[in-house]
Specification:
Rossmann fold, seven-stranded parallel beta sheet, 15 helices, 13 strands, 15% strand, globular
């Protein structure tokens, strides 16, 4: 019988600052606390590597993809090179379980590592409801969008036969997987994202943090965290703020993150005369402190899985306005922990923010309720549920050999 000290490799596309990356960082930390031996493997180094290594967890950086499928012979050579690099890492660290995040075509490459007794189990993680390839991800070959979408759907349907399981981070993600792949309920396990509550409930000097940002303690501070891409809906938040600044002259917005839409969002901010109100902070490693120094949190996303930024804000005790996307209602209680509005509607977003800004007592009560509720979404529980899944499939796969 295995003693549950599984040697687990989490493979993620990159170690930039982002929601899925934070899921991996938090998960491997708690898997280690629960007795597993995790390592992280990535194809692009990034700022989160130091955070992970400070936890005493090894990070392996493999050579990234170099060729698109349009250069088919080179693409095949590339895939074989990456596969061999993965095999070497699996052998080097005696990996028993592989779990992937945000890999797309490399998911299928990882699946080729599955086999008999001494080769690893493989789990694929779905982080979003809208997992399909987006136009902005194919800037040079837009004509490939539909063929690639169809190809991915077919490959995931075929992979359902050989993968040990899909892990969905919310019920809405499972529902979309079933619609995309087919009736594979027995292969999908929902494990909700968890947050390292300790990181978001440490005492901080709010005044000092605001002073560094050039903001007074009297300013009303709204924060949002997310990569600058269409999915995150920043443009709707900026439009909503324009409708609020005359009524609330002390209102300021922190946009934490970076991405391809930064220039466009800054141009929108300037055109609306909001440069003194909206602060672009870039990617930050001090998000817990910035949340602690804030008064409110807004999640304007157009789609999500189970957004880490949302549960981090709740752990920080912030009242929240969030769009009604996958995961939001699974975590929030509308009217109790915050206000939920339709995605892509700047007017309703502005109205909800106005409600909180106009009733500080209600906002404080919502923040306290959010902090109490988030205890059900701990990283410890998330890690324990992963280990239980690993154990079930480990025992089952040995029985099938």
């Amino acid at each position: 019988m295995h003693n549950d000290q599984f040697r687990v490799m989490h493979i993620i596309s990159n170690l930039d600052i982002g929601g899925a990356q934070e899921v991996v960082r938090t998960l491997v930390a708690y898997l280690a606390e629960e007795g597993c031996v995790p390592i992280v493997c990535t194809f692009k180094d990034g700022p989160l590597r130091q955070d992970i290594e400070r936890l005493g967890i090894l990070v392996e950086v493999l050579p990234a993809r170099r060729y698109s499928i349009v250069d088919f012979p080179l693409f095949v050579t590339d895939m074989l090179r990456i596969r061999q690099a993965l095999i070497n890492v699996v052998k080097k660290h005696h990996i028993e379980i592989i779990q992937t995040h945000l890999l797309r075509v490399l998911d299928f490459l990882v699946l080729t590592l599955r086999g008999k007794a001494k080769t690893p189990l493989v789990f694929l993680t779905a982080h979003n409801t809208n997992e399909e390839l987006q136009k902005e991800q194919l800037p040079r070959h837009r004509w490939l969008l539909k063929p690639k979408r169809l190809g991915y759907r077919l490959l995931y349907r075929l992979s359902a036969r050989s993968v040990n399981g899909f892990i969905a981070v919310a019920d809405g993600v499972k529902t979309e997987l079933l619609e995309t792949i087919g009736p594979i309920d027995d292969k999908i396990t929902v494990i909700l994202n968890g947050v390292d509550i300790r990181r978001y409930q440490r005492p901080v000097d709010k005044g000092a943090i605001r002073d560094k940002l050039g903001l007074t303690e009297q300013a009303r501070l709204i924060t949002t965290v997310g990569t600058f891409k269409r999915q995150k809906g920043h443009a709707y938040l900026i439009e909503a703020v324009a409708a609020l600044v005359l009524q609330f002259p002390d209102l300021h917005i922190l946009l934490i993150g970076d991405g391809d839409l930064r220039a466009a969002l800054q141009a929108q901010t300037s055109s609306l005369g909001l440069k003194q109100r909206i602060h672009f902070l870039g990617s930050r490693s001090d998000v817990p402190g910035l949340l602690a120094a804030s008064d409110y949190f807004v999640l304007p996303s157009l789609w999500e899985g189970l957004p880490m930024a949302l549960i981090e804000a709740m752990a920080s005790g912030l009242p929240i306005v969030a769009t009604d996307v996958s995961g939001t209602r699974q975590v929030m209680v509308p009217g109790e922990t915050g206000i939920v509005v339709p995605p892509g509607d700047a007017q309703q977003l502005a109205a909800a923010i106005r409600e909180l800004l106009s009733d500080s007592a209600r906002a404080q009560a919502m923040g306290a309720a959010a902090q109490r509720r988030i205890e059900d979404f701990s990283a410890k529980k998330q890690a324990q549920e992963h280990i239980a899944l690993y154990r079930r499939e480990w025992i089952g796969s040995r029985g099938r050999l």
